[in-house]
């Protein structure tokens, strides 16, 4: 069973996709947002997607449409093309994970979410693990996908790993198979295979049995996402060890 000191993970609030403010041209998961988080001494949460040529790029969505002047899937373009994509409201450019590591350089903790389509593809996970193995700052990797975290447990056990989760598994658009999968995820049925060092749970779904038992029985930390209101902050203070926040200064 996993056990390690993660005091650094919960010592400071975690800026969701960096300390971003679109109205000021500071866009999520971009260099200015990360610089602002570092200046505020916040930990940083970010997301990584794969490029067409196998690089890990710092971006949340599967497609470019929401944040940039381009359209189409991120993984359809090689990394050099992605780095040339213009965002809608900033002169920042997309970073590779390696470039983010260079920017942060251990100044604050990093929490990297490995995006997945639950399709069994692990090339991005392997690339992130290879880069993370050479990083010397405080770093945690996490994913919604248990297959990603199980791979890290088996192949990179020294890296800090966590599961991102929520409790809602009854949304009307879900198929019966998808509901079953989500119910299993919410119950941490994958625990023997993943043995996560921490959980990152949706604040609206707390408290719940999984997070309470994880903290009380296993004595492992639970962080929460994404805190945006006073009510969320009060709930997080009761049931989580640290917040992932946006829209205010924690």
From TrEMBL:
Entry's transmembrane regions: none
Listed PROSITE patterns: GP_PDE
Any Pfam family hit: GDPD
Domain (GP-PDE): residue spans on this chain: 11-250
InterPro entries xrefs: GP_PDE_dom (IPR030395), PLC-like_Pdiesterase_TIM-brl (IPR017946)
Gene Ontology molecular function terms on file: phosphoric diester hydrolase activity
GO biological process, one term: lipid metabolic process
Protein name: Glycerophosphodiester phosphodiesterase
